[in-house]
Amino acid sequence: MASAELQGKYQKLAQEYSKLRAQNQVLKKGVVDEQANSAALKEQLKMKDQSLRKLQQEMDSLTFRNLQLAKRVELLQDELSLSEPRGKKNKKSGESSSQLSQEQKSVFDEDLQKKIEENERLHIQFFEADEQHKHVEAELRSRLVALETEAAQHQAVVDGLTRKYMETIEKLQNDKAKLEVKSQTLEKEAKECRLRTEECQLQLKNLHEDLSGRLEESLSIINEKVPFNDTKYSQYNALNVPLHNRRHQLKMRDIAGQALAFVQDLVTALLNFHTYTEQRIQIFPVDSAIDTISPLNQKFSQYLHENASYVRPLEEGMLHLFESITEDTVTVLETTVKLKTFSEHLTSYICFLRKILPYQLKSLEEECESSLCTSALRARNLELSQDMKKMTAVFEKLQTYVALLALPSTEPDGLLRTNYSSVLTNVGAALHGFHDVMKDISKHYSQKATIEHELPTATQKLITTNDCILSSVVALTNGAGKIASFYSNNVDYFIASLSYGPKAASGFISPLSAECMLQYKKKAAAYMKSLRKPLLESVPYEEALANRQVLLSSTESREGLAQQVQQSLEKISKLEQEKEHWMLEAQLAKIKLEKENQRIADKLKSTNSGQLVGLAQDNAAVSSGAGQDEAAAKAAAEPVQSTSLIGILTRTSDSEVPDVESREDLIKNHYMARIVELTSQLQLADSKSVHFYAECRALAKRLALAEKSKEALTEEMKLASQNISRLQDELTTTKRSYEDQLSMMSDHLCSMNETLSKQREEIDTLKMSSKGNSKKNKSR
């Protein structure tokens, strides 16, 4: 341990030494750079001095030139003064000479003026160049002083570092001496370690014998009683049904019910908030009943009118999630599939918030731009706009975490199991942030409402609408606080319930395995219920055999029944043909009757008998009504009409009346009897055909059921054979795996023996080195 500490100290000192060397190099580079900069500045100073000298020389030349020009001007003035008296004497003769002298004078004046201006300009340039040179020189001097001070500081730092390096070197030398002393103590410890290794070898032999015996025991138990170990692989272990924890399920259902109640309160508060905001837009700053509101507020009002289609699904999604948590299910993140629908509804609501946020901010800006808005009200509006942005951001953050929690039930690779706890804690932080934002909104909106109530133009509508919005915001604040406190109280239970899953495993691997596990759980529960149910009364064996014989005989007589059905169908077709034949005869008889009636009517008109004509018309009406009734009944009763008319015609001769009536009655009775007989035959054929059809249908159903049972039995046979082959393969694989484990254990023991031998060799080498060092020390 002491040697390790010394080595650690030595390494730390070496690292510090390397760091200081690197810093020293950096400082040296800085000093060299500063020296190069100072040299460059000196060169610049020399250049400036040279330029200044050039300018001074130019100034001297210009002054000399100015003096020459001044002398020349004086000479010209003298000549002018001499030429003036001469011009007075010779005015007449010297007009031309005076003109020439004036032209020369004007030329000289212009030349003089140009030289004066050039001289003035050169004086100004010289003064500016002198000032600039002085300024540059002062700057360079100050920079040179600063660079010299920095160079002095760098040199001081370099000196300090050299001192520190010397001190570290001395410390390292001292540590080296201490390490030499501790090496001797380590040699003694090496001797003790050798003795301990011998003891460990003995213990290892004993442990090897004990483990080999236990391994043989466990292998014999596994070979005899464990055909397949499904907990070895996590994919198979995830399909095992965990122990049913009824208390956990009831607790989760209770928590889900409380969350549903809180979400319902939050949904009602959000609906009220958006609805009353829409009403406020219609009232303030412009009342829609008096004047038209702006297009921006109209669009904003139209979007707010759609809030129920985005807010209501939140309650429905939470209700579906609550209904999915029952006493019979296993509630973990991998099985809560309905959480995905709630996340989708929350995403749609956040899209709605993003859509209305720009309109809300522009509406607040429009309120600020109105003439009724004061400075205090404008400040509150700005605070509310910031609060609305924060509210949308908090909802987006909450939706992100809810979407992450919904991933294990749909996409298992989307969220690692190690991140479940962090996501759950972040959900709690997001809920607390939502509560804080709602408190700020409630505070700022209450201040805004009080300011608006004090305005002289505030109407009763605006006051009531502000009160309603404030009450909805307070309800939102209370609901957010309740949800945040409720979640913070239960987040530890949520994190602890993540381990609720298959035994001896980290949890469900995928949503598919969780769904399969739930199906197996339902099958197991149904099997346990079927075991608890009382057995139904079974059919006695003799009766079952008799029913089977009946079934076989009925199946054998299927062809006979088919022939009977064919014969009955043929009879039905014949009866239909006879029916059509008799209906045609009835129609012909009706036509003959109408012709006879027409003929009788013509006869009666010719005899001028009014009474007989009236009687004939009455009987014709009666006969036509009877014909309609009998046609509706689909029976051929038209001969009755003809007999009645014949009776009317024969009333003129009293002797022939009874014979005609008796003949009509006979015909009527004959046809009625024939119709009754045919209808009875038809009904009998119908009933027989229906009976045969039902029997054929029952036989076809029995045949289909028998074929299905045969197919099911063949499939079960195939599955059983596949299961047998699979179990045999699994048995061979388990045997091979245990043999591999045994070989691995033997290899491990061999490697341990090799490490022990290496340790022995190292101890021997340490002994030899310690002996050599001791001899060297003695010789020294």
TrEMBL record:
InterPro entries: PPP1R21, PPP1R21_C, PPP1R21_N, PPP1R21_six_helix. One of its GO terms (biological process) is regulation of intracellular mRNA localization. One of its GO terms (cellular component) is early endosome membrane. GO terms for molecular function: mRNA binding; protein-macromolecule adaptor activity. Residues 95-104 have a biased composition (Low complexity). It is found in: Early endosome. Residues 11-112 form the Protein phosphatase 1 regulatory subunit 21 N-terminal domain. Keywords: Coiled coil, Endosome, RNA-binding. Residues 81-104, 754-780 are annotated as: Disordered. SMART domains: KLRAQ. Residues 3-72, 137-196, 558-592, 696-737 form a coiled coil. It holds the Pfam family KLRAQ. Its main location: other. This is Protein phosphatase 1 regulatory subunit 21.
